[in-house]
Design brief:
Bound molecules: NADP nicotinamide-adenine-dinucleotide phosphate
CATH superfamily: NAD(P)-binding Rossmann-like Domain
Distance between the termini: 49 Å
Helix content: 40-55%
Largest sheet: 7 strands, parallel
Strand content: 15-25%
CATH architecture: 3-Layer(aba) Sandwich
Strand order of the largest sheet: 3-2-1-6-7-8-11
Number of domains: 1
Shape: globular
Structural class: alpha/beta
Order of helices and strands: EHEHEEEHEHEHEEHHEHE
C-alpha cells in the first residue's frame, strides 16, 4: 500500500498534507515531538478518515542543540520495517522556525539547533527513507522549504541559512538518487495562514507578505496540493523548486496601496 511519511504534522501545514494523502486513500505515517499531541492528532485524523490507515509516531530531532538524534530515526524506520510498512513518499515538513535568534545576542548553539533540525535531521531522515526506496524501486522526497531561502527577513539568519542549505541538499540528493528512481523536490511557500495568523490578527492584517500580485497568502491546502503534485504527478521532475507564495518573491517591492 502506498505510504507517505509526513514530519511535524500535529498542527498547521502538516495537518493539511496528512489530510490530502488520507483523502486520496494513502496510508499516512506522521510525526510530532510530543506523545500526547501525536495521540490527540491521530484520534482526530481517525475520526475524520475512518477508512484510512493513519499512524502517529513521536520523535524529536535533537538530543541537544549540537546533536541530532540519529538513533531515534533508526528506531522509527525499524518500527515501520517490522510492521511491513514501506514509505514511498517522505514529506519533510517539520521545521525549527528559529524565531527570535539575533546576531550579537544569541549563543551559537541557537544557530546550531536550527541548522541541525532543518538540515542534518532532514538529511538523516532522507538517508533512511532513500535506502528503503532504493530497495523497493524508487520513491519521492519532498522538502517543505521557504521563499526565505532566497529573500531575507529580519532576525531569521539561522532559518534562512537552513532553508538555503536545504535547497542545495535537495538538488544534490536529486542528483545522486535519480539512478534509483528516487525523485527529490522542494516547495517554497511564502507566508502560510497557520494558527499564528489566527492568534495575532492585528499583526497579520498589514503584514508585508500579504501584499502579493495574487493579493493574499497561501492556506495550508495550497501547500498540500503542491506536495501531492510532486508525489503523484511529477514522474519526470526531480531537483525542482515550486514556489507557492502568490508571486511574493518576484516583486521588487510590495505594492501596498492596491
Ligand atoms: N508558516 C509559514 O508562514 C511558512 C512560510 C514558509 C515556509 N514554511 C515552512 O512550511 C513548513 C510548515 O510550516 P508551519 O508554519 O505549518 O510549521 P510549524 O507550525 O511552525 O511547525 C511544524 C511542526 O514542526 C515541528 N517541529 C518544530 N521544531 C522541531 C524540532 N526541533 N524537531 C522536530 N519537529 C519540530 C513541530 O511539531 P511538534 O511541536 O508537534 O513537535 C511543528 O508542529 C515548515 O517547513 C516551514 O519552514 C512555513
Amino acid at each position: 500500500m502506498k505510504t507517505a511519511l509526513i514530519t511535524g504534522a500535529c498542527i498547521n501545514t502538516g495537518v493539511a498534507i496528512v489530510e490530502k494523502f488520507a483523502a486520496e486513500g494513502r496510508r499516512v505515517v506522521f510525526t510530532g515531538r510530543s506523545a500526547d499531541k501525536v495521540q490527540e492528532a491521530e484520534k482526530r485524523y481517525k475520526e475524520k478518515f475512518p477508512d484510512a490507515e493513519i499512524l502517529g509516531f513521536h520523535i524529536n530531532s535533537l538530543k541537544d542543540e549540537r546533536t541530532v538524534d540519529e538513533e531515534a530515526v533508526e528506531e522509527l524506520f525499524s518500527a515501520l520495517d517490522e510492521k511491513g510498512i514501506f514509505v514511498d513518499t517522505l514529506v519533510l515538513n517539520a521545521a525549527d522556525q528559529g524565531l527570535g535568534i539575533e546576531i550579537f545576542k544569541n549563543p551559537l548553539t541557537d544557530f546550531m539547533r536550527v541548522i541541525n533540525t532543518n538540515m542534518v535531521w532532514n538529511y538523516c531522515l532522507s538517508e533512511h527513507a532513500a535506502k528503503r526506496m532504493k530497495e523497493n524501486g524508487g520513491g519521492s522526497i519532498i522538502f517543505i522549504n521557504s521563499n526565505t531561502a532566497y529573500r531575507a527577513i529580519p532576525n531569521r539568519i539561522a532559518y534562512s541559512a537552513s532553508k538555503g542549505g536545504q535547497l542545495g541538499m535537495m538538488r544534490a540528493l536529486a542528483f545522486d538518487l535519480g539512478k534509483y528512481n528516487i525523485r527529490v523536490n522542494a516547495i517554497l511557500p511564502g507566508m502560510i495562514k497557520t494558527d499564528r495568523w489566527d492568534k495575532n490578527p492585528e499583526f497579520y492584517k498589514n503584514v508585508p507578505s500579504r501584499f502579493t500580485p495574487i493579493g493574499d497568502v497561501a492556506v495550508s491546502e495550497d501547500i498540500a496540493d503542491a506536495v501531492w503534485y510532486f508525489a503523484e504527478h511529477a514522474r519526470n521532475t526531480t531537483g525542482a523548486e515550486l514556489v507557492v507564495d502568490g508571486g511574493n518573491t518576484i516583486q521588487l517591492y510590495p505594492i501596498t496601496d492596491k
